[in-house]
Amino acid sequence: MDLRSICNAATNTVNPNIIVSVQSSTGYTTGNGYQQVPQYAAPVTGPAQIQALDGSDLKQLEGLNIQGRIQAIYFRGVLAGVVRANSQGGDLVTIASPAPPQYVGTWLVAKVLETWPDWTKAAIVLQVNS
After folding, report:
1. Among 11, 19, 83, 112, which is disulfide-ready with 88 (CB 3.0 to 4.6 Å)?
2. Alpha carbons within 13 A on the beta-carbon side of 28
3. Hey, what domains does the chain have and what are their CATH numbers?
């Protein structure tokens, strides 16, 4: 049973899915002055649900000193935040028009909140408005 699809059918009537582009972090290279330059895989697109964080999500983020605009994303696929063991930063999620203007921009996956075999819920933080 694909519980995510069942729930998405209900939430999609009130909060429609939007198409996002995800670039998975592949680590970094070293640039001028030994500065780390992040590297990303080719973008993958797919539907996502953007929602507000709930109380339990906020508790998970407590103490991480994350500031700015933060949202929850439900994405059919895998998202990753920082994976220090692999020297990877967080994945990037790009949302473009015709998505609602408050979501348009490039977002960083700050923390994975839930992970399942076929979908991920993560906290994303706005990096750049488009």
Report:
1. 83
2. 17
3. 3-28+38-128 (2.40.10)
